Amino acid sequence: MAGVLTAGRKETVHDLAKFIDKGVQVKLTGGRQGTLKGYDQLLNLVLDEAIEFLRDPDDPLKTTDQTRRLGLIICRGPAVMLVSPTDGTDEIANPFMQPDGA
Questions:
Q1: In angstroms, rounded to a whole number, what is the distance separating the alpha carbons of residues 100 and 25?
Q2: What is d(CA 5, CA 1) in angstroms, rounded to the nearest whole number?
Q3: Where are the domains of the chain?
Q4: Which of 12, 19, 35, 39 gets the highest tally of CB atoms within 10 A of its CB?
């Protein structure tokens, strides 16, 4: 279900208005984060002060701590897999991670 019908008006499930001018992390083909400046109903995002986490050259599925500054970017909606706030989130240990040599 893409939205909820309320008094003849269709509202989208993803209400990003509360994240305008706040930091968000966006999961695309590469990890990027920045300050959300705008969005539309297709989930095209405008991020300011965006940074990209670079991929590990030995394992392209992993990102590294190295970053590059992108500035103002537009992320196309179909490429957006995840949008999460950067404030109030903490990274936790993966409980399914196997110890080395197991």
A1: 29
A2: 10
A3: 12-83
A4: 39
Enter the DSSP assignment of 96: T
Distance in angstroms (rounded) separating the CA atoms of residues 55 and 2: 33
- Beta carbons of 24 and 36 less than 8 angstroms apart: yes
According to DSSP, residue 1 is labeled: -
Q: What is the pTM of this model?
A: 0.64
Are the C-beta atoms of 18 and 36 separated by less than 8 Å? no
Is domain 12-83 annotated with CATH 3.30.559.10? no
Does residue 17 sit in helix, strand or coil? helix
What residues are paired with 50 via a beta bridge? 71
List, for residues 57-81, the tens digit of each pLDDT value: 898 778 888 889 999 999 898 888 8
